[in-house]
C-alpha cells in the first residue's frame, strides 16, 4: 500500500481539509441569525466527503479505508436537496421550512440502503 501524492492529490487534499473546517465552523457557530447555515454546512460536508473519496482514489489507497465502504458515493445525491433547502431558507426567512420538503432526501436514503 503506497501513497502517491502528486500535485492533483495535494490540491484535492487541501480543498477537502478547507471544506471540512468551513463546514464545522458553520455547524458549531453560535450565530443563530444566519438563515440556512446548517444546510450550507451539510452541502459543503458532502462536497468535502466527495473530495476525500477522490483523494482516496487518486492517491492509490483504494479499498483501504473503512469510511468509504460504509458511506458509498451515493451521498453526492444529497447536494441538490441541501442546496434547495439552503436557498429556500434564505428566500423565506419569515416562515419555517415545511416538513414535506425533507422528502427530497428520500432518494439519498434509498440509494444508500440498496446501493
CA distance, first residue to last residue: 27 Å
Q: How much helix is in the residues? A: 55-70%
The overall pLDDT, averaged over residues, is 82
What low-confidence regions span 5 or more consecutive residues with pLDDT below 50?
A: none
How would the global form be characterised?
flat
SS-derived structural category: mainly alpha
Strand proportion, as a percent range, falls in under 5%
Question: What is this structure's SSE topology?
Answer:
Layout: H1 7-28, H2 37-58, H3 66-70, H4 79-91, H5 106-114
Helix pairs in contact: 1-2, 2-4
Task: Describe the fold and architecture.
It is a single chain. The chain is mainly α. Helix content is 62%, strand content 0%. Helix 1 runs antiparallel to helix 2 and helix 2 packs antiparallel against helix 4. The longest helix has 22 residues, at 7-28.
Give a short summary of the structure:
The protein has one domain. It contains five helices and no strands.
